[in-house]
Amino acid sequence: MAGREFIRHVATIVSIDAVGFSRLMGLDDEAAVAIFEERRDLIDAACSKFGGRMFGPAGDSMMAEFGAPIDALLAVLDFQDQIRSANESLPPERRMAFRAGINTGQVIVRDESRYGDDVNIAARLQEIAPDGGVVISETSWHHLRGRAAVSFVDLGEREFHNILLPVRAYRVERGLTARAETQDVAPAFSFFRADGKGGPPAVAVLPFRIDADDPEIRYMGEGIAEDIIAGLSNTRWLPVIAMNSSRQLSDEALMPEAAGRALGARYVVTGTLSRSGGTLRLRAALDDASTNRNIWSRRYDRDASEMTEMQGEIGTEIVATLEKEVDRMEQARTFRVPWESLETWQLVRRGRWHMQRRTREDTQMALDFFLAAFDRDPNSSTVLDELAWWHFWRAWVNFGGSGEYHKDLEKVVHYSRKALYMDSQDARPHAHLGITDIMLKRPANALEHLAEALRINPSFAFARSAMGSAHNLLGESSRAIPLFQDAERLSPFDLYRFHNLGELASAYSHVEDWPAAAAVADRSLALAPSYWYARFLKIGALARMGRCEEARHERSLLLARDPDFRVERAEVIPFARPELNRFLIEGFLMADRD
């Protein structure tokens, strides 16, 4: 038993419980079981629709695992709506509601079961949820805020039985538009495309409208749209309608559906720009023209003196968000078509979906899809990119391990170089070559590749974070900090955001900004409480500030979560000079001083 190895991965766990099941059993046990099984089928179908996997049923409770927190929340909102509708046909005493708790964190994978504190936290959150309601953890909240038509009520920190640390909880409150957000009203698989042929759907960006006749900001409406079009064009896989065509459809009465059909685009980006006093306000939205459904929207407020800076900043941020949102929608669509009609790009998106699940089975399924796409189109740079990423991911999991580690990195280089041969203006292969150099302790070499990736696609948050890591490993932390901050802005809901924050905490540590290092490390831990590096850095920062009692408390938490932790683990971080490792280790060891 002592030698048994366990697989861990990050997941979002949903704990679901039937409210009043025992009471109904007392009234009519057979009817209660029948109602429960009908509701359970609705729950199972909703979870499957949003990419969830059920596990661990126990009596009137059940659990589901999701890759992304937003998918977990949308699934819960979906099945609660369906159950609410089903209950309306029953007398009040026979209605059965289901409450849910959602938590994101690390779980231990064992066959079809999932274990760990983060699974138990989801169950405890469910226990404090209202009938037919949802309560989420702070870890999930960081990924969900602003992503769905809901609001969150802060319930404060809660102490739970057998849970080591207090958990901040949030109750989900839904508005009138929440139901529309969770409904799946898309028709059978179809899409608009400018050339009318098969392949990925096109996106159109309409000129941003000006709320008032203000000539000083009128030029910005088209300018921001042009920035978005240029940025989306660099994503390589997504066709973008030219601005010369999009600017013809600036009629305010024109709905996104009509604009999409006119331009041959499934996705339509719209926005408005206004000025009130010294403040500029911009609203942007992404709609699916095939269903007339809003996918994403956001408001930006900036000082009028920052007009020029705002144009570039907003355009870059929208590009990063739209790329993720459109990709997420397309992954879901591929499951509505049979295998024999899947084209190469659909195979890639389906493989990406499984990669996001991060289980051993899903990872293998992802490779199967990527290889199937490779068989159909061995010269597709997109397919080659995915194969390069797959092998990098496996190398990262086995960092510094067996010969397979180096073989995987060799394959990353092979596929990336071939992808560049097929498309020299693809940013991803340059980024993959850069992070491979980082893994091989060559951060200086990595900078050249990452700089080229950002030249091609300035909105590439992953490349910005990787370049920050390369500078930090070289001891150039002051140059790394803005890059990590850019990545944070460009990808604020990234599931691996905790890693970027951990790297930022490391950079702050090396410039000896201890309050910032401790604060950012704490933000990283809010997203991933088991992330040892962030806790290690927080301990060192607290100790350097003379707050040794707090540092020792954090160290006890680190050892409680990771009893096998040894300070030597920090020695393998691939800094260019050993003294950079020693500097961080010395801070950690200062926690023992009075």
UniProtKB/TrEMBL annotation:
PROSITE patterns: GUANYLATE_CYCLASE_2 (PS50125), TPR (PS50005). It holds the Pfam family Guanylate_cyc. Gene3D superfamilies: Nucleotide cyclase, Tetratricopeptide repeat domain, TolB, N-terminal domain. TPR repeats lie at residues 461-494. Keywords: TPR repeat. Residues 12-126 form the Guanylate cyclase domain. This is Adenylate/guanylate cyclase domain-containing protein. It comes from Aquibium pacificus.
